[in-house]
Write a structure and sequence with these properties.
This protein has six helices and five strands; from the N terminus they run αβββββααααα. By secondary structure, it is of the alpha+beta class. Strand 3 and strand 4 form a beta hairpin. Helix 4 runs parallel beside helix 6. The longest helix is centred in the last third of the chain and has 35 residues. The radius of gyration is 22 Å and the shape is elongated. 28% of the residues are buried.
């Protein structure tokens, strides 16, 4: 069913979209409504919040298909480029916005199957723009202060007040990034046995054990700091404890595999 688009000055746009928890007929109906609304308004993408559904759902048109990205997140990005964007919400306004030209995203499909994709160019920009809506943000939040003031002055009622949206990047991510760097350092030592003496190998093995301990400490720090940070942004569903535990479990699983390699391969 075709739904009305949320447009300026509706404050609904500042609401944080909740993660989808139930993959049922209601979800399929939401996706159908989003697709029908896209077709009726000739849109190539849509976030659920733009039709008043406060759920983390993005639908993007790819060829003749309409692909749902549910509970989507960026996990990798590179190559910042500037392009002009227009907004479904702020009709008639266009601004230059910096976006990543290459991104890797994780999400779930309508059957709750975990997926990941690499997007590049226009596809990457569209995904990022509509992901912003899920976090209570628009392209206005990505321009400098002078441009934001010009947009504010141009609009009849000024910019919509911030409803307290949570940040897309958290400080807890530095713990996770540090742990990944240490794990890559450990993996690099797997080449040492090919050319090093037994004495050197013993030193490398000892270093790897310290690095493994360092990863564990960073993961413990991540777990506790992430909970502290989540309390600062209670309205942000990406801070749910389930996501925190899932991240720690995933990284600890990677570490277990790497540690097994150290003890079986690097150990003298």
């Amino acid at each position: 069913m075709i739904q009305n688009l949320i447009q300026y000055p509706s404050p609904t746009i500042k609401l944080i979209s909740a993660n989808v928890r139930f993959f049922n007929d209601e979800l399929l109906q939401w996706i159908t409504d989003m697709r029908d609304t896209m077709i009726a308004n000739d849109l190539n993408a849509l976030s659920a919040i733009l039709i008043g559904i406060q759920q983390s759902i993005i639908v993007i048109k790819e060829g003749e298909n309409y692909i749902p990205y549910i509970n989507a997140r960026l996990i990798k990005h590179s190559d910042v480029q500037t392009h002009t964007e227009r907004s479904v919400y702020y009709e008639g306004i266009s601004v230059d916005v910096d976006r990543y030209n290459k991104v890797t995203v994780v999400y779930e499909d309508e059957n709750a199957t975990p997926c990941y994709r690499d997007l590049e160019g226009e596809a990457a920009r569209i995904f990022q723009q509509y992901l912003d809506y899920c976090f209570g943000s628009t392209f206005v939040d990505r321009v400098d202060r002078d441009m934001k003031q010009r947009i504010h002055d141009h609009l009849e009622f000024g910019l919509v007040k911030d409803a307290g949206s949570c940040p897309i990047i958290f400080y807890r991510d530095y713990f996770k990034r540090g742990a990944k760097y240490l794990m890559w350092g450990i993996v690099a030592t797997f080449f040492v046995p090919f050319f090093a003496s037994k004495e050197v190998l013993e030193r490398v093995y000892l270093m790897d054990k310290y690095l493994i301990a360092g990863v564990i400490l960073l993961m413990i720090g991540y777990f506790f700091y992430a909970q502290y940070e989540s309390r600062q942004y209670k309205q942000c569903t990406s801070c749910q404890i389930g996501n925190i535990i899932g991240t720690v479990a995933f990284l600890m699983g990677q570490l277990a595999v790497i540690a097994l390699g150290v003890f079986l391969w690097v150990a003298p």
